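Question (not urgent): is this output format expected?
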Amino acid sequence: MTLHFSRKQLIYLVLTIVVLLGVFYLSYLLLVKPVKLKISQLENSVKTEQRLLDVISDKRSNDAPVISSTEIQKRIPVIPLVEQIVLDVQQAETLSKSRVIDMSYSESEFTLIDEILPEEQQGETSPENATENNQETNDNGTTDDPMEEGETVDPELIDGLNQITVTLHVQSPNYEELEKFLSAIEHQKRITRVNSLSFTGPPELVSVEQVAEQLVYDVTISTFYMPKYTELAEEAPKLTVPSPSNKKNPLAPGLEKKDENNQ
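Got this back:
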């Protein structure tokens, strides 16, 4: 069967095909192409962000952080800083209204044997002066045994560690001020511990006319430093030392001013 289209029908058919093609093309331009373009832009953006992230990660891994050791050296310095110990003791004096009569110190390499010796010395001390009072001090929390039973110390942690042992002969108004003095020593920024304490209690008061005697006692403290890292000595904490008063006669601070005014 043969189909015959008139000229008018052929024109309509061609126009219909052209219109359909136009509709499809416009739909592609208005709907499909913008979506593809958006997807392409997002993909490029993701690739760019990924490259930036890789660059930042590489930079962070290559740049070693620079950390100052000053804060750490406030706890354990790399140099002795004996002047700091003296200032800390003076501060404890002021806070507890005590007076240090005599002070001496020695330096030595820290070993685990040093942890055992204080216990042996406590057993050898005469019961009149030290044994009972050391027990009281432990009960009040002023002197703690640094090595508890079963506790082990990694030798690498104390390798190269030196200790400064300071022996103090102190006078305090009463037992409460003694505790304040010890507490002030142990709560300094720099790690400091009380090794031993010995004193003889004052005689018992039997009348209201008697005046309580001040406590005189001996205390041994220890602090530490790590000389194996001397290259960090420049980062050691700076000491805040009071400025000199430039007094010609420190025993009579007020007489010089009066003499100058009279002249």
